[in-house]
Design a protein that fits this description.
The protein is of the alpha/beta class and about 425 residues long. The chain has two domains: about 15-50 and about 210-275 and about 365-420, FAD/NAD(P)-binding domain (3-Layer(bba) Sandwich); about 65-110 and about 140-200 and about 280-365, 2-Layer Sandwich (D-Amino Acid Oxidase, Chain A, domain 2), CATH 3.30.9.10. It is about 30% helix and about 25% strand. It contains twelve helices and 21 strands. Strands 4, 6, 7, 8, 15, 16, 17, 18 and 19 form a nine-stranded mixed sheet that branches. Strands 10-2-1-14-21-20 form a six-stranded mixed sheet, with helices on both faces. Strands 3-9-5 form a three-stranded antiparallel sheet. A hairpin with a 2-residue loop joins strand 11 (about 230-240) and strand 12 (about 240-245). Bound molecules: flavin-adenine dinucleotide. Flavin-adenine dinucleotide binds near residues 231, 264 and 388.
Length: about 425
């Protein structure tokens, strides 16, 4: 890898990125590789937003949208189950209603097929694009290739998810169904409630998603990249271009700008003439330092809709969805619900010394991120809205943005991800 000073490739520019999460830092590293001077601006240290506490899955097959023809029928059951996978702050409902209508529209079958194709294009090269970045940043030892196990109570529950699996199969993604006996050979501590599973070999997971972002940030800084601690409050513009970021401690001028501010991005894009219907899909995790059970794979619980990931710190149980608005305080009952679900999977689970965390997934109604140029400012690019696949798609996103800024044709067709699609 070349340093910014060494690289003479192309037209070297100064690029300012808002957001030092996995998307901002992956983008920063890609731009730096192209020989640009890059400044990343965040009000907190790199990786302290949603990227801190995710489940660590490089979930390259998470391609169907969250909305589907059957999903709305399941919502009341989920909402009225206190340990269910979905929660809503009822006072947020009036603000959420227009978003929900769009979400329902994204669940029409022709939309589901179109979105699944676009997400497959985004996610299928995930690891191929991450690999050189992980290696350059010395992070290979955090990446594990064990595949993922999706846990079902029985075959009937698996058959109830038929559409999800058909969408993958139609796109050539292989999976293997496994009975309880085979499941126990792979994961001996699973309790009697789970009798069927699906194994996907292609997934990888990381031992700590924060250490990935932190490692990228350290690598970026070691190559001469600048990380500034400040809240971006607005933009200075002239002649259809942004000239500087406004922060509470002065302005930051640059040639080009990237908005990669996760769940807060729509507030910034709106200032630039591009409102985006983004909601916080808050998730929670529980960390168990001494789980008392052996877990060999990342696993997805299809009942509680959360992941179980063996990590550096112990076992992480992470997931669920809460729609309460970005500024609402966490509801820690949601984290306890994850523990209750996990005890059904692992009756021998030891929860002593558990830690809890909440993070705001940036979610657009069609479950697809926004990646591409601003229609209103010639030198602004967007990279946000990565919902439950930000870690998986970080490098592909960063590469696409760096291709755009370099004037190269991105390998990924960005049309489905444009900001003005709503
Ligand atoms: C429980 C849970 C489990 C998950 N599991 C997975 C998984 O297994 N695999 C996967 O791929 N994804 C997973 N995700 C999703 C993933 O974590 C997100 O998609 C990803 O972290 C989004 O990254 P980001 O960089 O866009 O946002 P963030 O990490 O939130 O970074 C955005 C940054 O922008 C900064 N910022 C915002 N506004 C401003 C401003 N005005 N000025 C300065 N700074 C600003 C914030 O401080 C923040 O640091 C999970 C999420 C949750 C909640």
């Amino acid at each position: 890898m070349t340093t910014q000073a060494e690289s003479g490739r192309g037209d070297s520019r100064h690029i300012a990125i808002v957001g030092a999460g996995v998307i901002g830092m992956a983008t920063a590293c890609c731009l730096q590789e192209d020989g640009h001077r890059v400044t990343v601006v965040d009000w907190q240290a790199p990786g302290m937003g949603c990227s801190w506490g995710n489940s660590g899955g490089l979930g390259v097959t998470s391609i169907p949208p969250l909305s589907s023809p059957g999903v709305l029928r399941k919502v009341p059951g989920w909402l009225f189950d206190p340990n269910g996978p979905l929660a809503l702050k009822w006072s947020h409902l009036p603000r959420l209603a227009p978003w929900l209508l769009r979400f329902a529209r994204a669940g029409r079958m022709e939309e589901v097929e179109r979105i699944t194709d676009a997400m497959n294009a985004l996610l299928s090269p995930s690891y191929e694009v991450w690999r050189p970045l992980f290696s350059a940043a010395g992070l290979d030892n955090l990446v594990h290739h064990t595949g993922v196990i999706h846990l079902y109570t029985d075959r009937a529950a698996f058959e109830g998810d038929a559409l999800q699996w058909k969408l993958r199969k139609d796109r050539g993604i292989p999976y293997e169904t496994i009975d309880r006996e085979a499941l126990l050979r792979m994961e001996p501590d699973i309790g009697p409630a789970y009798n069927f599973a699906v194994y996907e070999e292609v997934w990888r997971h990381v031992g700590d998603p924060f250490l990935i972002v932190d490692g990228l940030a350290r690598h970026f800084a070691a190559q001469g990249g600048e990380i500034r601690r400040a809240a971006v409050t607005g933009f200075d513009s002239a002649d259809g271009k942004v000239t500087a970021l406004r922060t509470e401690s002065g302005t930051i001028a640059a040639d080009d700008f990237v908005v990669a501010a996760g769940a807060w991005s729509h507030r910034l894009s709106k200032m630039l003439g591009s409102p985006a219907p983004q909601e916080s899909q808050r998730g929670y995790h529980v960390g168990l330092p001494n789980p008392g059970v052996e877990v060999r794979h990342i696993m997805m619980d299809t009942v509680g809709k959360h992941a179980i990931t063996p990590m550096v710190m112990g076992l992480r149980l992470g997931g669920t969805s809460e729609f309460a608005g970005l500024d609402s305080p966490p509801n820690w009952r949601r984290a306890r619900a994850i523990v209750e679900n996990a005890k059904r999977i692992f009756p021998g689970l030891n929860t002593e010394g558990y830690s809890q965390w909440a993070g705001d997934r940036p979610l657009l109604p069609d479950s697809m991120p926004v990646i591409g140029p601003s229609p209103h400012r010639r030198n602004v690019y967007y990279a946000f809205g990565h919902s439950h696949i930000g870690l998986a798609s970080g490098a592909v996103t960063g590469r696409a943005v760096s291709d755009l800024i370099a004037g190269r044709n991105p390998a990924l067709d960005l049309h489905p991800f444009r900001i003005d699609r709503f």
